[in-house]
Amino acid sequence: MRVVYADELLLENFIIDYILLIVTARVTGICIKRTRAALGAGIGGIYALLSVIISADFMTWAFVKVAMGMLMVYSTFGGGRRYLKLCLIFLALSSAFAGALVAVLAFTGGTAFGSVTFGVMAVSFGVCYCIFSIVFKELGRHRVSGGIATIVIEYRGHMVKLAALMDNGNSLSDPITGRPITICSLESLRGIFDDSTLDILSNVRDPAQAMAEISRLRNRIAFRLVPYRAVEVNDGMLLAFKPDSITRNGIPIKNGMVAIAREDMASGDGYSALTNAG
Description:
Blueprint: H1 6-28, H2 34-54, H3 62-77, H4 83-108, H5 118-141, E1 148-155, E2 158-167, E3 181-185, H6 195-203, H7 207-215, E4 224-230, E5 233-241, E6 245-248, E7 251-252, E8 257-261, E9 273-276
Parallel strand pairs: 2-9, 3-8
Antiparallel strand pairs: 1-2, 1-6, 3-9, 4-5, 5-8, 6-7
């Protein structure tokens, strides 16, 4: 009989749940904070530990397991319109991993989950991860408008990676050059700008005044004003700049520009930018 130590059980389940949550995020194209994924995985690890310590039948009921899975998803992704979809994807991935674990156990001569070693779990997850990567890579190629795209922006040696909603209604472009514009929240671009520029962008609400103040900085950025219209906004202005490079799902956006939205776009869907679906 294999002796299972509490710290080993907690760590193994934490690692597995953490990876499953990260894979769920990649499948749906949602950017999440690693600390939020760690929180969700921690809940899963504690539940696994309590299941052994309490040894009560209700701890293994399917309803309780599903409820804990939904709590893990909520802790990681929050609520929102896609919450139930995220729950289904996470539970499906968890079930697929469990099935792979059973298959590896049968192949290696194991007879029960009590005989599972960390090596067996690693092999099982490795098989699942390879399959998921291939399947979801193909699905990503056929992602339609309205989905989530991965945007990578590089500027002056700095890079940010963020999730953007592919919006058919976003036709914003530079009126002078016709360059396509991706709209990003200021928060998502903090990794690009220096502190002086960030201070102005954060505190000066008038785009024209902000551009004037930034132009006086030593490491000034060549911003320009771009007009836009939106719900309840007829004649708005956004600050925009030309990054060194910008890609969408790994494909370069030729001559693409980036406009800054002061409002945070973060939601239950997890995107922090808007890009044209074309």
